[in-house]
Amino acid sequence: MYSGRRNPNQDIGLEKMTIVNLDADNGNGETLVVLYNPQSYVRKRSVEYQPVQELGAEFPKLQYNGGGIEELSFELFFDSVSAGEEVKGKNGEEKLKNEFKQNQGKILKEKTVDVRTYTQKIYDLMTIEKDAHRPPMLSISWGSMEFTGFLSSCEQNFTKFSSNGNPVRAVLNCQFIRCSDGKEAALNPKQSPDTTKYRTVRQGDSLWAMAQKEYGDASQWREIAAANGIVNPRTLRSGEMLTVPGLV
C-alpha cells in the first residue's frame, strides 16, 4: 500500500489523463497517456488590479488591469516493474499490475525497466521546439477537465531503484500555465474604452488629446470633463488625477 498515493495494484476503471503535443505534426502529435491518474489536481488563477491613490482617501481605488496567469498542477506516479518491455495500453497495464501481485512489489533485476523511459517523455515537454522557438503547446484532458498551455515546471522524484541502480519508481510534480485560446478580445483590458480608468495630468496634456488616446475620438473630451466637473478644459493642472469614464 502506498500511503497518500494511488495504489498501483488497485484496478480502477477510470478514463486516463492524456497530454497531447499540439505543435507536433500539425496538432496530431504524440498522445501521452499517464500510467496512473493523479490522486488530485489544483487549478489556480488570479486577476490584476492597479491601485490608484486619491488625495485624502484612506484606501486607493482599484483599476482592473486584466487576467493573471492560470495554473494547473498535479503529481504523477510511475512504476516500471514489468517483463522488460514498455507498458502499453490496457493489456500492458494489466501485466504490470500482475507483476506487482506475483512479486509482492519486489524489484527483480531481470524484470525491470528504467522508469525514466516514461518520465522523460513528460520532462522533455519543456524542451524548445525548433520551429516555434519555445516549448510545445499542450492539451491536458481528463474526463471533463481540459487545459491548454505549457509545462512550466516538472520535478522528478525517484524513490525506488533496482539492484543495478536504475530508478524504477518516480513521482513527477508537474505545473502547467494556461495560454490564450485566441478568443479573448483584441484590446488590452486596461486600454479598452468601455472601462473606467484613472490618469494623471502631465504638462502639455489636454482633454482633446486624452480623449483621442483613450477613446480614439477627440470629440469625446466632454465625457472626461463632465466626469471630473471641469468647466474650462484649458485649466488642467499637472499632477491632477482625472477619471476617464468608460463609454457605453
UniProtKB/TrEMBL annotation:
Species annotation: Candidatus Faecalibacterium faecipullorum
Residue ranges of every copy of the LysM domain listed in the record: 197-244
InterPro entries in alphabetical order: CIS_tube_prot_N, LysM, LysM_dom_sf
Superkingdom, taxonomy of origin: Bacteria
Protein name: LysM peptidoglycan-binding domain-containing protein
